[in-house]
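can u pls check wat happens w/ zinc ion
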Amino acid sequence: MELINDTGSLLLPFASNFNSTCSDVLTEHDALTWQLVIQAAAMTLARFISTFALAPYYVAAPILIFTWLSRSLPTYLAKREKRLPASIWTIHGKKYDLSSWAKYHPGGSLSIELGRNRDCTGLFESYHVFIERNKLYKMLARYEIKDEATSKEEQQTTIASLKTNSTGLTFGDGFHEDVKQMLRDYFMDGAKSHYMKGWCKCLWFLVFCLEIVTMFYFVKGYSLPLVVLPCLNWLLTCNVAHDGSHFAVSKKPWVNRIAQCAAMPCFFPSLCWSIQHVVQHHVYTNDEDDVDLYHFLPVCRVTRLTKFAKVFKLQWVLVFWVLPTSVGHLLFVVPMDLLSGCVDAVTGTRRYQQCENLEDLVERNQHVIWTDLLLCLSWIAVNLSYSGVMTGLWRVYVSYSLASYIFVIFTQGAHLQEKCMVGKDDPSWAKRQARTSVNFGAKSQFWNLCSGGLNLQSIHHVVPIIVAVTWWNSTPGSKKSAPSIT
Ligand SMILES: [Zn+2]
């Protein structure tokens, strides 16, 4: 109970300040009952919130550690050396071997790696909006695997085992081409950059410096950073890490790669996010292959299309139940599950098994997943060593809980609603991308900055290569109205 009492005063630093101020007033002017009532109410609320939000962590963390030590670690250690298949990229039904060209790719080698040994038509179409198509196809033709080449036994086996585009949807239809043309007109004719603007880079660098200072005071045990750190880290997550993962911060690949790491320590690790968000969620939004539908199975985040459809009716209730653990799940459960490849005892599935080239991505990028994981664990370790085990854990849990609320409200709200659960009656992939997302505060610069452009999900899901924030209806000096889709 003592811990919960501390929780109340630490979670609401303003209430704590009010407490001391109030005591002085009471000493001088006798009892002011209404102040006592407000104070008691604030403390009760703080206790309730902290108990509600932190309870899942105190339950989930020991279970996670036990599961990791008893199941995941032995599986990881016993894993035999994997023989990865030959390298084939499938785009619009044609097979290419782009491995020798990956290092020359203007968007960087990671973006090419994401499409190795899978049907990457969706990725290809999402990120090649501004380049001339003929030039692109000419370049691709040089790496096409012709029929003669498939005579090799190994390559034949690989091609046969690769799935085709599982969206079953068409790309480059009238709507899709119209959206792309609209953007080309807007950005290329006006010679505007679709990457992050200079003033945004300065602003987010300042926020980053502020975050470092906040982290310092967080470790030192101050109360205010418990609230401020998740907020600052969120601004960097949605404005820098998210756009970095979509290769939209800069035309320099290494800048995007560094930007992608800005979501730590409170939100998500860099490479797991690429697999989850860029490769699966963005191509198969609210479809069976969207891994976001499986994070909390069989509890929540499902669609009417799955066998867990009954749960859909309880989405909002269940979301609030598991919500506080969301970032803990992304930061620790996902990387551990990906590294070990363990089959979940409840659902009988492996983490992100919907991803066609998961084995490739994990095996080839193990070192990055481990680095991300160790960075996040070291943040916890530093806090424990300064504040002691119980207080240190409590402080980290509070920041994770707040971060989880922010993350889920901004990211999942746009896809969880009934009207976002569309079927495949229209074969257009681009239309489906727009329809499986909802916008909010579309003309508000405030929401644009606070959500990192996620308030305009429908256009972001069709063309994620464009930096999600600030270009929309806000280009200084622009005479031309910005394009939009509804
Ligand atoms: Zn995105």
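DSSP finds 21 helices and three strands in the chain.
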